[in-house]
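#lab-general

N.A. 3:47 PM
ok so I finally got the sequence cleaned up, no stray characters, all 191 residues accounted for. can someone with queue access submit it? mine expired

B.Y. 3:52 PM
send it over

N.A. 3:53 PM
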Amino acid sequence: MLAEVRRSRSAVLDAVRGIRPVGSGVEPIPGAQARSGVRVAARILLVDPAQQLLLFQGFDPHMPGESFWFTAGGGLEPGEELLAGAVRELREETGMQVPPERLVGPVWLRRVQFSFEGVKYDGDEWFFLAVLTDAAVVDTAGFTDLENRTVRGHRWWTADDLRSATETVYPLQLASCCPACWPAAGTGSCG
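B.Y. 4:20 PM
back already:
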């Protein structure tokens, strides 16, 4: 179901606070320990056999008219490790049971500040990559109550879809840096 992929070390700047490449996933990750007062999240770049990236469309209940697209993933549970959080989030949000050894990364660290439902967050988002070898059906039955209230849908995006998007997609640099992570996908570059 998942393809072997190489780890990305592309360098990117995030317009919010910064995306940077991280280690190969084998050595200890500098800064992986939670910073005081920071929400730590594991996010997944899930790519299908057609080289399309899964994104969810959501909105902030305080601004229901402004929607945005984002990758699978979310905040870690207390005491949860990054990789375990990525596996759990992928299962909860897509219904896919992916063994931890099939996730690559983390490949990026995004430091971001945002607000949601009137609460301000300072976050470290660690991105993992998973490439499917078979078509998959996304099952959102594992969504939390909050996700059920604030996620409008999902779809698979090509690199061209990302580059030509007029809607907000987070992280903002996804169109330029994500295709560089995908095997045989486009000419996107983060370097």
